[in-house]
Amino acid sequence: MACFFWSGLIPGCFAAVLWGVRRVSRVDLGLQVGEAMATPVPGQTVDLGVYDRFHVHAQMEHLQTKYHGTGGADTSKWEWATNIHRDTMASHVGHYTRLAYFALCENEPVARVRFNCLQAMIQPCGKPPLKDDMED
Fold this sequence. Notes:
Blueprint: H1 4-7, H2 12-19, H3 26-29, H4 49-66, H5 77-94, H6 96-106, H7 110-120
Helix pairs in contact: 5-7, 6-7
């Protein structure tokens, strides 16, 4: 069996991530089971169509409304970093075994480590930067 890396073939899910193409099945292309499927060349653009572009934007808007901290075009660096830090701390608090590991490393009780993580979520990146009058 040939390795995908050395043969130049990349599985569909990785091709979609690397080159921005959508995955198409062999049935959609009219290929038989034994036929080879051509892979796009890096840098090649593939037209997704108006519906697909609208669908991607609709999915992104849905995620932004459903999950706080997803971010958008107007998200500042401070907001993004704050969301990342809060998500990390919330993950630490939510996993008892990780809290127990941190407590062991810090030689503190688990409750103290949990409290410290919750306190760190208040302003993890410091105070928000001042906004200029030109931005409003």
